[in-house]
Amino acid sequence: MSRTILVVEDEPTVLETLAYNLEQDGYRVVTATDGRVGIQRFREESPDLVILDLMLPEISGTEVCRIIRQESAVPILMLTAKDSEIDKVVGLELGADDYVTKPFGLRELQARIHALFRRSEARLTVPAPPVVDLGPVQVDLAGHRLLRDGESLPVRPKAFELLAFLIRHPGQVFNREQLLEHVWGYAYAGETRTVDVHVHSLRNLVEDDPAEPRYLHTVRGVGYVFRRPS
Ligand code: CA
């Protein structure tokens, strides 16, 4: 059975090009041209992946993303019109899994889609690992949750995956390109600050003092490493 992708995009040429190429790739494509219909279609079709434009009529892409994320863990790929919007996407607690900036190449988009599907499948097939105790915060690797006193902490899916990856490789130093490659599934020059933004938000969640991290250490001139305090 082919996977269904929901594309929510108000620019007809972008929508048509995307739909055409995704269908050529063997996906079933459902479309919407505004946020309100996008949410309707999402509920009717239960797609396997959502491609969501940031600037939409009726209900904005950010709001659509938030609503979908409340209802589902479906992979969400955001489309942004300009580089300056990326900060918005990454900075807001939107819950989107990835983004591309317009104009984008179809091959780049395909690579992102494949990576998102690979990861959502890996998530389903990995046997339940233990809960890792980081002082006051517990990392539930199987449940993709951060817990403090039994309460779930809000964490973006990508930030969680980054934390889980570093925890699974304790003491191993990774540079930003390697982390992009392992966690995001690609490594494009110039996007490495995404890693910094996510490490910053993780420190705010798991460290008592984010300025003096006990677990998520910066290795100057190299990258990041997870270490337990000795
Ligand atoms: Ca738009």
Quick overview:
The chain is α/β, with parallel strands linked by helices. The protein has helices at 12-24, 35-45, 61-71, 83-91, 106-125, 157-168, 176-184, 193-206, and strands at 4-8, 28-32, 49-53, 76-80, 98-101, 131-134, 137-140, 145-148, 151-153, 174-175, 216-219, 223-226. It has 2 domains: 4-125, 3-Layer(aba) Sandwich (Rossmann fold), CATH 3.40.50; 131-226, Arc Repressor Mutant, subunit A, CATH 1.10.10.10.
Radius of gyration from the CA trace?
18 Å
Number of strand segments: 12
List cofactors, ions and other ligands.
calcium ion
Distance between the termini: 51 Å
What is the count of DSSP helices, taking H or I runs of 4+ residues? 8
Q: What percentage of amino acids are in beta strands?
A: 15-25%
Shape by Cα distribution? globular
Question: Strand order of the main beta sheet, please?
Answer: 2-1-3-4-5
Given helix and strand content, the structural type is: alpha/beta
